[in-house]
Amino acid sequence: MWCHGKRSAIFAVAVAAAIVASAAAAVRDDLRTYIVHMSHSAMPDGFAEHGDWYASSLQSVSDSAAVLYTYDTLLHGYSARLTRAEAEALEAQPGVLLVNPETRYELHTTRTPEFLGLDGRTDALFPQSGTASDVVVGVLDTGVWPERASYDDAGFGPVPTGWKGKCEEGNDFNASACNKKLIGARFFLTGYEASKGPVDVSKESRSPRDNDGHGTHTSSTAAGSAVRGADLLGYASGTAKGMAPRARVATYKVCWVGGCFSSDILKGMEVAVADGVDVLSLSLGGGTSDYYRDSIAVGAFSAMEKGIFVSCSAGNAGPGAASLTNGAPWITTVGAGTLDRDFPAHVTLGNGKNYTGVSLYSGKQLPTTPVPFVYAGNASNSSMGALCMTGSLIPEKVAGKIVLCDRGTNARVQKGFVVKDAGGAGMVLANTAANGEELVADAHILPGSGVGEKAGNAMRTYASSDPNPTANIVFAGTKVGIQPSPVVAAFSSRGPNTVTPGVLKPDLIAPGVNILAAWSGSIGPSGIAGDNRRSSFNIISGTSMSCPHVSGLAALLRSAHQDWTPAAIRSALMTTAYTVYPNGNYNNGILDVATGRPATPLDIGAGHVDPSKAVDPGLVYDITAADYVDFLCAINYGPAQVAALAKHSTADRCSANRTYAVTALNYPSFSVTLPAAGGAEKHTRTVTNVGQPGTYKVTASAAAGGTPVSVSVEPSTLSFTKAGEKKSYTVSFAAGGKPSGTNGFGRLVWSSDHHVVASPIVVTWT
Ligand SMILES: *[C@@H]1O[C@H](CO)[C@@H](O)[C@H](O)[C@H]1NC(C)=O
Ligand SMILES: *[C@@H]1O[C@H](CO)[C@@H](O)[C@H](O)[C@H]1NC(C)=O
Ligand SMILES: *[C@@H]1O[C@H](CO)[C@@H](O)[C@H](O)[C@H]1NC(C)=O
Ligand SMILES: *[C@@H]1O[C@H](CO)[C@@H](O)[C@H](O)[C@H]1NC(C)=O
Ligand SMILES: *[C@@H]1O[C@H](CO)[C@@H](O)[C@H](O)[C@H]1NC(C)=O
C-alpha cells in the first residue's frame, strides 16, 4: 500500500521477502508462482489453441503443476506454481520467451479541485466533461465501498456502449452494487491464494468489496462524484469531489491483506483493458528491475499500445535519491506535494514554549490546565520504549499524562492506542532524524499531535530534565491558505530512474498530503483493527493519493481531446506544470520539505500539475508504440525481452541496420549523461502543434552549481501553420568535467504569443 502510513514499513520489507512456499508443497517444496511469457507465433503445428500448447509445455516439466491464469492480450503465456528447477527447464524450451518469478507489490481530497484551479471551472475548461462522460477510469487497488456517495450516479447517462466490464458478486457484494457511475467491480486472487492460501473471509471479503479503504480513497480521488458536507471527524469539511467527477469508475481488486501479487495484477490489467477502460490508475509498486520483469511495466506497455493512459505512484521511499519505482517511459510516474491546507495542533510546555504540530484528533479535549508530561523512553523498561511499542509502557508512569513518543517502527496511530491502553491522557508524536520536519496529520485515537524533529528534541530534553514537566495540546481545526504550497513531501520518491537514467522520472507531482476522499466502512480512519470509529471519508497521504489525481486529470484531457495518445496527454500535463509558486512568492521554486531548499527536476520532474493550462498546451511531444520499441532496442533489450513487452507493435524490432538512441525518445524532458571528464550529448525531439498557428522561440539553459552547461537548440524558431503539424529540433548539450555523481539542472522552453511549452533538464556526470 503506498499510502504514507501504517504500511510503509511493510513495503520496505516486502520487496525483499521471498514468497513462502505453501504447506501443500511437501514434495515440490520450493514452489512459487512464475509468469511464463510465450512467443505467440512460435506455437508448433498440431495444437488447436494456445491454451493447449501452454498446458503441454507445462506438462513437459511437471505432471502436477496447474495453470493459474492464462494471459491472452497483455502478454501471451500463463502463470503456474513451479519449482525453480521446473522454471529453469521451461525457460530453456523453444517458444518460451521469459519465465519471471512472481513479485509482490505493495500499495504505496475536498480541497484539491480548488487548489488545482478547477473549482467550478471543470465544465468551462473541459466542455465535453460537463455532459455525462464516457471516459472510464480503471483503478487496480483494494476494491471499492460502493455505497459511498462518491459513486452516486445521479445525472449519469447509460453505461458507455461497448463497455464489457461487470460487477462480480462475492462476499458482501451484490451485482446490484454497480450503477451508471461505478460501472465495473471485479476481483483477482488466484495468484494470491496459490501463495497464501484461501482468503480469510472473517478478515476480508472475497469479492470487490474494499475492507482496507485505500481503493475507495484512490478511485474517489480520481473520479468521485461531488459530495456535499464531506469531512473526517469535522476536519476538512466541504464538498469532496474527484478530479473527473463525470467520468465512470471501474475497480479491479488485486490487493489483499497480504499484498498485491503480480500474477493477479497482470490479469487485472488484462481484463481492465479488455473491458474498455481509457485510463488505468495504479497506486502500487515495487518493481525496480528491468521493465520486462516488472509486471506493471509489462501490462502498461500493452495498455499504452491500445491508447490507454497509465498513471502510477512513484513510491513513498523518499527523500533519498534513486528511490522511485514505476519508472518505465510509457507510464506516467507521479510524486507528491502538499496542499495549502493544514490541521495545526499546538503543543505548549510548562516552560512556556509553544510548538505547532498537526492532528486530525476529534473527541474529548484535554483539561485546559497543564497536564503532566513524560517521555516514553522514561516510562518503559524496554530499550525501544521511546517508540511506544505495544505493551512497553509502565502504566504507573504514564497514567493521566501526555506521553511523548518517538515516530518510527510501529504505526503512528498505533502508538496512541498503546498510550491509551496504559492510561495516558494524550500523546505527542515526535519525529526523529528519519522524518525530519515532515508532518503527517493523523486521526489519533486520543488527544495527540505530531511534531517535527526539532520540536521533538526540545521536548525530549524538557521532559527528561524538568522535575515536574507539563504540557497541553490545543487543536486549531482546519486552516487553509497555508504558504508556501505546494511543497514536495519528504516521503515522495525521487529520481534518478535507476533502470534507465536517460529517462527523467518522476514525470511530475500532484497533491498527495492530507487528502480527503471516500473510505471503507469496514475500518476506522486510522486503518488499525482496534479503531472502532467509522467515517465515510478519510484523510491520508502518499504518492498513492497523488497518482489518482493525475489519472482523473488524464480522464478530463481524454474527454476534451479524444484523439490524443497517452504520451500526448502526459506531455500536456508536463509541459504546462509549474515549478515556481504561482503567486510569485519564494521565487526560487517549489520547496522540498526534506531540505527546505528549492526542489530539482529529480524531485518533481516537470513540476506541479496545472490542469487549466494542460487542456491547451500549444505543442505536445507525442510518442508511438513503435517509438517505445526503438527505445527498448536502444537499451539493448534482446528479442525475447522486447517481445515480452511489445505485443501489438509491428515496428521493425531492433534491426541491425538501424542505430537506436535513448536520446531520440520523444520525451517531454531531458536527462543528459556526460562523462566525468566532460563531453557532449545530442538529443532529438519532435513537437506536434495542437493549438493555433503560430511561431515558437526557444530559450534553454542549464548549470551545475555556478557552472553553465552549453545548451544549443537547432532550429531556435519553429513556425506552425496548422493543427497537427510536426516540427523537429535537436539540442546539443556540452560541458567540461565534474566529479562523478554531480547534477546540473535547467529548462528548455518554447514560447509563442499564447503558449509556454517547458521541459526540465537534468545533466548527470558519471
Ligand atoms: C445482497 O442482496 C441480498 C438479497 O437482496 C441482501 O439480503 C443483501 O443484504 C445484499 N448484500 C449487500 C452487501 O448489499
Ligand atoms: C501557540 O502558537 C500558535 C501559533 O503560533 C498560537 O496560535 C497559539 O495561540 C499559541 N498557544 C499558546 C498557548 O501560546
Ligand atoms: C519494570 O522494571 C521494574 C524494576 O525492575 C519492575 O518492577 C517492573 O515490573 C517492570 N515493569 C514492566 C512493565 O516490565
Ligand atoms: C529520562 O531518560 C533520559 C535518557 O533517555 C535520561 O537522560 C534522563 O535522566 C531520564 N529522566 C528521568 C527523569 O528519568
Ligand atoms: C539491411 O539493409 C540491407 C540493404 O538495405 C537489406 O538487404 C537487409 O535485408 C537489411 N537487414 C535487416 C536485418 O533489416
Automatic annotation (TrEMBL):
<dbReference type="InterPro" id="IPR037045">
    <property type="entry name" value="S8pro/Inhibitor_I9_sf"/>
</dbReference>
<dbReference type="GO" id="GO:0048731">
    <property type="term" value="P:system development"/>
</dbReference>
<feature type="active site" description="Charge relay system">
    <location>
        <position position="544"/>
    </location>
</feature>
<dbReference type="GO" id="GO:0005576">
    <property type="term" value="C:extracellular region"/>
</dbReference>
<keyword id="KW-0645">Protease</keyword>
<dbReference type="InterPro" id="IPR023828">
    <property type="entry name" value="Peptidase_S8_Ser-AS"/>
</dbReference>
<dbReference type="InterPro" id="IPR036852">
    <property type="entry name" value="Peptidase_S8/S53_dom_sf"/>
</dbReference>
<dbReference type="InterPro" id="IPR034197">
    <property type="entry name" value="Peptidases_S8_3"/>
</dbReference>
<feature type="domain" description="Subtilisin-like protease fibronectin type-III">
    <location>
        <begin position="665"/>
        <end position="763"/>
    </location>
</feature>
<dbReference type="GO" id="GO:0006508">
    <property type="term" value="P:proteolysis"/>
</dbReference>
<dbReference type="InterPro" id="IPR000209">
    <property type="entry name" value="Peptidase_S8/S53_dom"/>
</dbReference>
<comment type="similarity">
    <text>Belongs to the peptidase S8 family.</text>
</comment>
<dbReference type="InterPro" id="IPR045051">
    <property type="entry name" value="SBT"/>
</dbReference>
<feature type="domain" description="Inhibitor I9">
    <location>
        <begin position="33"/>
        <end position="108"/>
    </location>
</feature>
<keyword id="KW-0964">Secreted</keyword>
<dbReference type="Pfam" id="PF02225">
    <property type="entry name" value="PA"/>
</dbReference>
<protein>
    <recommendedName>
        <fullName>Subtilisin-like protease</fullName>
    </recommendedName>
</protein>
<dbReference type="Pfam" id="PF17766">
    <property type="entry name" value="fn3_6"/>
</dbReference>
<feature type="active site" description="Charge relay system">
    <location>
        <position position="141"/>
    </location>
</feature>
<dbReference type="Pfam" id="PF05922">
    <property type="entry name" value="Inhibitor_I9"/>
</dbReference>
<feature type="compositionally biased region" description="Basic and acidic residues">
    <location>
        <begin position="201"/>
        <end position="215"/>
    </location>
</feature>
<dbReference type="InterPro" id="IPR015500">
    <property type="entry name" value="Peptidase_S8_subtilisin-rel"/>
</dbReference>
<keyword id="KW-0732">Signal</keyword>
<feature type="domain" description="PA">
    <location>
        <begin position="387"/>
        <end position="458"/>
    </location>
</feature>
<keyword id="KW-0720">Serine protease</keyword>
<dbReference type="GO" id="GO:0004252">
    <property type="term" value="F:serine-type endopeptidase activity"/>
</dbReference>
<dbReference type="Pfam" id="PF00082">
    <property type="entry name" value="Peptidase_S8"/>
</dbReference>
<keyword id="KW-0325">Glycoprotein</keyword>
<keyword id="KW-0378">Hydrolase</keyword>
<dbReference type="InterPro" id="IPR003137">
    <property type="entry name" value="PA_domain"/>
</dbReference>
<feature type="region of interest" description="Disordered">
    <location>
        <begin position="198"/>
        <end position="223"/>
    </location>
</feature>
<dbReference type="InterPro" id="IPR041469">
    <property type="entry name" value="Subtilisin-like_FN3"/>
</dbReference>
<dbReference type="InterPro" id="IPR010259">
    <property type="entry name" value="S8pro/Inhibitor_I9"/>
</dbReference>
<feature type="domain" description="Peptidase S8/S53">
    <location>
        <begin position="133"/>
        <end position="582"/>
    </location>
</feature>
<dbReference type="InterPro" id="IPR046450">
    <property type="entry name" value="PA_dom_sf"/>
</dbReference>
<feature type="signal peptide">
    <location>
        <begin position="1"/>
        <end position="25"/>
    </location>
</feature>
<feature type="active site" description="Charge relay system">
    <location>
        <position position="214"/>
    </location>
</feature>
